[in-house]
Request: fold
Amino acid sequence: MAKDMEAGGGHGSFGAKDYQDPPPAPLVDAEELGKWSFYRAIIAEFIATLLFLYITVLTVIGYKSQVDTTKGGDQCGGVGILGIAWAFGGMIFVLVYCTAGISGGHINPAVTFGLFLARKVSLVRAVLYMVAQCLGAVCGCGLVKQFQKAYYTKYGGGANGLSDGYSTGTGLAAEIIGTFVLVYTVFSATDPKRSARDSHVPVLAPLPIGFAVFMVHLATIPITGTGINPARSFGAAVMYGKQEAWDDQWIFWVGPFVGAAIAAFYHQYILRAGAAKALGSFRSSSVI
Reply:
């Protein structure tokens, strides 16, 4: 198997690549503001996040109503935590598959932030994606509130919060680690090097991303209800409208953004040896 370019040799020269990295996105790309594809991508992020919150929050509220013993529910009934995790992971799989060719299928400000740090998207695109994602999340939860008026407020509106018995530090760590798993998976599943070297192993990128969301939910639902997506936490808190939904809201922004930043650094500068390559290139030019 052919190898990636490595710094070394007499003058820090590089060997040939067997894959092509896309060029880094500019910090501000004025040209994209005049393209319909740019606005189409923003609309796709809005609609995808709306659908994501609609299906997942509806699942959460439906489960809570099914296990409410005061209403004749069964504690062993409903979809359970496993079903909720499948709802989140399955919707991410479906929506990333549908929107990847239009917007990249971020559906999560933390994913967008990580890709921005890795120079995969411009600052303008990243900011507008995040705005669209948050607005989509609010609208998605708004639909659930309209369809489930009898249950929405009673069962917490699907809002995230730190569970009893867990410290703030534990909740923050759970969000950081959970988001790291997700964003690391996003980078790995969309890595052009993987496509070139593992072409004999067909990988549908949305599948591992959806599974990452599923697995993280299984682990962290008992701790924070699982955020790992600031738009998801924000939309649910806005529509629920009670102070308890905002008490720990900062955890669901700081945690995912820190986790995404760590994942971006780990993948780009350790696994992909970005720092070493940059240093090798600098040494090569200085020798000349």
User: Anything to note?
Assistant: The chain is about 60% helix and 0% strand. Residues 1-15 have pLDDT under 50 and may be disordered.
